[in-house]
């Protein structure tokens, strides 16, 4: 599903203009991102938990030249689904 499809579905369900729904979703996603950056975690009951995860540096290969290289350590966002969400899959 794309963001545009989500906006369309929510707009129809809520009987609201797509513009308003799009603006609301933008604000919601912005606040979720802020919470993840600030608290390192964002939890939605019945859906799942977003957390900051650390990846260690590791060996890899440059696909263009096939030469070995070190991929640097990084932080990323991980998602763990709630049991209720897993049950429906």
Shape: elongated
Distance between the termini: 16 Å
CATH superfamily label of the largest domain: IHF-like DNA-binding proteins
Q: Biggest sheet, in brief? A: 3 strands, antiparallel
- Please provide the count of β strands: 5
Sheet with most strands: strand arrangement: 1-2-5
Structural category is alpha+beta
Uncertain stretches of 5 or more adjacent residues: none
Q: H/E element string? A: HHEEEEEH
Number of domains: 2
List descriptors.
single chain; 89 residues; alpha+beta; HU Protein, Chain A; 2 domains; two-stranded antiparallel sheet
Description:
The chain has 89 residues and is of the alpha+beta class. The chain folds into two domains: 1-39; 41-89, HU Protein, Chain A (Irregular). The protein contains three helices and five strands. Strands 1-2-5 form a three-stranded antiparallel beta sheet. A two-stranded antiparallel sheet has the order 3-4. A hairpin with a 3-residue loop joins strand 1 and strand 2. Helix 1 packs across helix 2 (18-39). The longest helix has 22 residues, at 18-39. The chain is elongated, with a radius of gyration of 18 Å. The two termini are 16 Å apart.
């Amino acid at each position: 599903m794309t963001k545009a499809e989500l906006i369309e579905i929510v707009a129809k369900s809520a009987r609201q203009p797509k513009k308003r729904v799009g603006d609301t979703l933008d604000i919601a996603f912005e606040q979720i991102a802020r919470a993840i950056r600030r608290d390192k975690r964002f939890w939605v009951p019945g859906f799942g938990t977003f957390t900051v995860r650390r990846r260690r540096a590791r060996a890899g290969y440059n696909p263009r030249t096939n030469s070995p290289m070190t991929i640097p350590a990084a932080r990323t966002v991980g998602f763990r689904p709630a049991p209720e969400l897993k049950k429906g899959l």
